[in-house]
Amino acid sequence: MAFSIKVLNSCKFLQVKANRYSPNATTADVVITEVESNASYTAVMTYTNNGKGKIIIPISNLASANGVFEVCIVEGGVEQVCAPVLIHCNIDCCLTKLTNELLDCACDCPKCATSLAKAQKIYLLLKSAEAAESLGQSTENTGYLRDIVSKYNKAKEICDNSCGCDC
Questions:
Q1: Distance from C-alpha of 107 to C-alpha of 88, rounded to nearest angstrom
Q2: How high is the pLDDT of residue 167?
Q3: What SS3 class is residue 42?
Q4: Which whole-number Å values give the CA distances from 140 to 43, 72, 135, 153, in the listed order?
Q5: Per residue in 116-138, pLDDT tens?
Q6: CA 120, 10, 104: angle at the middle one, nearest 5?
Q7: What whole-number distance in Å separates Cα of residue 122 and Cα of residue 88?
Q8: CB 113, CB 69: distance < 8 Å
Q9: CA dihedral 96, 97, 103, 108 (to 10 degrees)
Q10: Nearest-CA neighbor of 9 among 62, 43, 56?
Q11: Which residue range is the domain that position 131 belongs to?
Q12: Last residue of a domain, one of 72, 87, 102
């Protein structure tokens, strides 16, 4: 575990784990920047004696509850590593609503075909964004961030208020 980011508890928390990069570092700043607005949030992570750190951050502290973020570990003012994270519970809720609509369909009517096509597009965009997210965690290429943002925004646009989870 050199560096990992995970969305927890139905998008309520973001967990960041990292190994110490500088041999003498006892803490690190975890800087989370919402890619489109460039708004950032910083939290301090403390390393244990074995050089491992873990912090759980409420997503409500971030600039947005959903979207594409870049998470960076900064030790002593020096950026050590960054990786993208996609928080997409809004898209998941949209897919849930569309799936429930499909479950209610009793035939191959045009409405069902439209809902299915919409759900397929959203799902493929989301999976493709997730693939770019995992590739972006192993490289410094900012092209991955733009790709993730583009796919996430298109999925959000297709959802167009098809909200299905407490909204």
A1: 31
A2: 46
A3: strand
A4: 22, 12, 10, 22
A5: 889 999 999 999 999 988 876 65
A6: 40
A7: 11
A8: no
A9: -120
A10: 56
A11: 89-159
A12: 87
